[in-house]
Specification:
There is one protein chain. The chain has 14 helices and 12 strands. With 389 residues, it is an alpha/beta fold. The strands form 4 sheets. A 5-stranded parallel beta sheet has the order 7-6-8-11-12. A 3-stranded antiparallel beta sheet has the order 1-4-5, with no helix packed on it. Strands 2-3 form a two-stranded antiparallel sheet. The protein has 2 domains: 76 residues; 298 residues, SGNH hydrolase (Rossmann fold). The longest helix is centred in the first third of the chain and has 27 residues. The radius of gyration is 25 Å and the shape is elongated.
């Protein structure tokens, strides 16, 4: 009994650390999880008596310590996201709940107060009004047709701007005669969300009369959303290429990863371990480019089939010139989009030299300012040859 009790006493710390390692893989960053695993390995060196097990534990601990050091180095070298350090608060916080069809969407008849602060200084305090159908309010829109549908993510929603300062609202106020303009942007959306919404006819209820056009943003951050590389995208629709070479809906990102473990492991590794993400970067960029271009092509096809209308893109993606653009690695994707032959408004050409871009984006946040939205509205009106009267 004494021997059994001693073995149990030695095993309990190792079991607890092992459970802690598993928990850390779920709730902690990769670097800290690797350190917890390394400590677990060192505990094995102390507890085990057989030389083989002690050596194996030491090797395991050494490997995890080395991996944590590499992870730390890649984390230090990785560029920071534009909104790092900004503290954002939205009241109510749950204003876009889960949805079984498109992942999530705004709750109708909701007023949202949004604030953002950086280093104690306010970046913005604005109010979002969600109408009875679930779209963002568009001051200047008419109840009469034709309809202009503006779809997309937080760029189209105009996060950080008042209702009247969004691109859809500026566009609506300048249309003569007035028309029905709808803002269906949703913060956090990617192309898979609005392609699925278009497939299911989720936008039909917003249409009054004939649809003149569907307008969407195309920006570099949308590329990694087509592979669901964001924690909030787990419930969002997933698309892949079938045996026929065409895009097919394959459920949600989270559901697919549970039924395809290797995809789940790949997602966890590349999104939680900086060195794995760097190693997979080229492969993922090629895959994301292929998916992104195919999704935009499918969206244009669905818009034509459903509304007999064109898809118009507002592109803040890189152009062939100038050479000082910070995201030229995404050029193949945006060249692919331009090759589709759909109308594209090149916002990047309007921004001018890189040194002057700061005025067009909210500091420490990255979303367009009112000045940027004005510039985009001007470019869209010009592209569509709409003359103000």
């Amino acid at each position: 009994m004494v021997a059994i009790r001693e073995k149990l006493q030695r095993a309990v710390p190792a079991v607890l650390l092992g459970a802690g390692f598993v928990a850390s893989l779920i709730w902690l960053s990769a670097g800290w999880a690797l350190l917890v695993g390394a400590v677990w390995g060192l505990m094995g060196v102390v507890l085990f008596r057989r030389p083989f097990l002690r050596n194996a534990s030491l090797a395991f601990a050494s490997l995890l310590f080395a991996m944590s050091a590499v992870e730390c180095a890649f984390w230090i070298l990785a560029p920071s996201a534009p909104n790092v350090g900004a503290s954002k608060t939205e009241t109510p916080p749950d204003w876009y709940p889960q949805d079984p069809d498109v992942g999530f969407k705004p709750r109708p008849n909701t007023t949202v107060v949004a604030t953002s602060v950086y280093d104690g200084q306010p970046l913005y305090k604005v109010t979002y009004h969600i109408d009875a159908l679930g779209g963002r309010a568009v001051p200047g829109s008419s109840d009469q047709g034709p309809t202009w549908l503006f779809i997309g993510d937080s760029y189209m929603f105009s996060e950080g701007a008042e209702d009247s300062d969004t691109v859809p609202s500026m566009f609506a106020r300048r249309l003569k005669p007035p028309a029905h303009v709808v803002n269906l942007g949703v913060p956090g959306y990617g192309p898979t969300n609005y392609v699925r919404a278009m497939e299911l006819g989720a936008y039909d209820k917003y249409v009054v009369g004939k649809v003149s056009a569907v307008v969407a943003w195309a920006t570099p951050p949308l590329l990694w959303r087509v592979t669901g590389d964001g924690s909030w995208l787990a419930s969002s629709p997933r698309y892949d290429f079938g045996s026929d070479g065409k895009l097919h809906w394959s459920g949600s990102f989270g559901g697919y990863r549970w039924t395809h473990p290797w995809e789940g492991v790949s997602y966890y590794a590349r999104t939680n371990m900086a060195w794995v993400g760097r190693a997979m970067e080229s492969h993922m960029e090629r895959e994301q480019t292929r998916l992104y271009v195919a999704l935009i092509a499918k969206l244009a096809e669905l818009v034509k089939q459903r509304y007999d209308a064109p898809l118009v893109l507002l592109s803040n993606g890189p152009e062939k010139e100038p050479a000082d653009q910070p995201d030229l690695q995404y050029l193949p994707a945006f060249e692919g989009i331009r090759a589709l032959g759909i109308p594209v408004v090149s916002v990047r050409k309007r921004l001018g030299p890189r040194a002057g871009w700061d005025q067009y984006f909210i500091p420490h946040d990255g979303h367009p300012t009112t000045k940027m939205n004005t510039l985009v509205t001007d470019a869209l009106m010009e592209k569509l040859d709409l003359k103000e009267q």
